[in-house]
Amino acid sequence: MRKWLENSRNEIALVLAIIGILFILLFLSLVWFPLMPNDTTTTVVEPNEPNEPNVAMEPNVPSEPNFTDIIDRYKKNMDMWIAKTAKLQKEIISLQKELTESNIPVEPNFTDIVAKSVKSVVHIKCPRWQGSGFIIDKNIICTARHVVEDVEDFTITFNNGKKVNATKAISDKEHDTAFIWIEEDMNNIAEIKSIKDCKLGQDVFIIGSPYGDINVNSVSRGIISGLDRDWDEIDPYTGERYGWEISFTSDSSAHPGNSGGAVFTMDGVVRGILVGGYSPVLNCSMPCDLFLSDIEQIKLMFTMDRYQFEKEPIYSNSYYNHVEDNEYYRIK
Predict the structure, then answer these.
(1) In terms of domains, do 101 and 116 share one?
(2) By the number of CB atoms within 10 A of the CB, which of 29, 170, 192, 260 ranks highest?
(3) 2 close to 106: Cβ distance less than 8 angstroms
(4) Nearest by Cα to 315 from 307, 325, 299, 326
(5) Whole-number CA gyration radius for the chain
(6) Within a domain: residue 251?
(7) CA distance 23 to 79
(8) Are 168 and 248 part of one and the same domain?
(9) How many CA atoms lie within 13 A of 88 on its CB side?
(10) pTM of whole model > 0.70?
(11) pLDDT, tens digit only, all 332 positions of the chain
(12) Does 54 reside within a domain?
């Protein structure tokens, strides 16, 4: 579309230039050239017969142009060119109106997309580590599960520098995705869509906080390098799985601290959550498809705080371990 608009503007400029040239040629043909004298030539005098005096032939003197004829011809040609010019002007006005009233959106440039997208991304600081996240609802931030694991105290920093504290988080039982509840309403909710609409090699960019709060909301750009990946390997130290069996990869630069950050396509839409990688340019992301249809249920899990799951009581030396603040009596 942008190329079409640029070509249209170029065509308008070309038409205006042609009109200007035509007016110059018209002036020269109707005013300047008719007033110029014709080439004067001298008739060659052939030698007379002997004993006859040489008599030179008088040169041909051009007759003065008839001014009335010039004006009439000028008016006739001018009327013709005025009609043609009026037609061209109508075409230009029609084209300008079409461009102005066109409903086809002009694609924004990359910096405009980043400026809008970065508002939805946050930095997450925990007592022992840091990560990233993004706003998916007025009270919910999405991040990676390993960012919130065993944590009940979060400091959230928004793109404008504002900080809020949070204490509630839930996570997916099977995949590396999690959600943090923010008590006050948030703006700048990210637009979220499926990775299924994307193609291998498609441009993407990542916004997050590599190495923590010294690089809040940094941007890196790359492409989708792999779709439908299964990275769910068993951790050799804990014997646990990462929950990365449904993932996609990109070559956008990412580092520790980027975990939980948003992976955007060039339309400013979040397609996944960055969770890890084998190198800074081979990283793994959870697709947003994992929770696209669950946002309302996630909200309910946070808001219905009055209910809890019953757990088997814990006994110690045949005595019932009945402590009011026993962490086993409630789900964090």
Answers:
(1) no
(2) 260
(3) yes
(4) 326
(5) 40
(6) yes
(7) 12
(8) yes
(9) 17
(10) no
(11) 555 555 556 666 676 777 777 777 766 665 555 555 554 444 444 555 555 555 455 555 556 667 677 777 777 777 888 888 888 888 888 877 777 776 666 667 899 999 999 999 999 999 889 999 999 999 999 999 889 988 889 999 999 999 999 999 998 888 889 999 999 999 999 999 999 989 999 999 999 999 988 889 999 999 999 898 887 775 555 556 667 777 899 998 889 899 999 999 999 999 999 998 878 888 889 999 988 888 888 888 888 766 555 555 444 443 334 444 444 434 43
(12) no
222: domain range?
A: 112-290
From 44, 73, 107, give the residue that closes a domain.
107
> What gap in Å lies between CA 99 and CA 97, rounded to an integer?
5
Contact 24, 31 (CB under 8 A): no
Task: Give me the numbers of helices (H) and strands (E) for the chain, helices first please.
Answer: 6, 15
The one-letter amino acid code at 241 reads R
Q: How far is CA 42 from CA 47, 58, 60, 65, in A?
A: 15, 7, 7, 20
Q: Is 291 exposed, middle or buried (0-12, 13-18, 19+ CB in 10 A)?
A: buried
Question: Mapping DSSP to helix (H, G, I), strand (E, B) and coil, where does residue 67 land?
Answer: helix
List C-alpha distances in Å: 84 to 9, 20, 90, 277: 21, 13, 10, 67
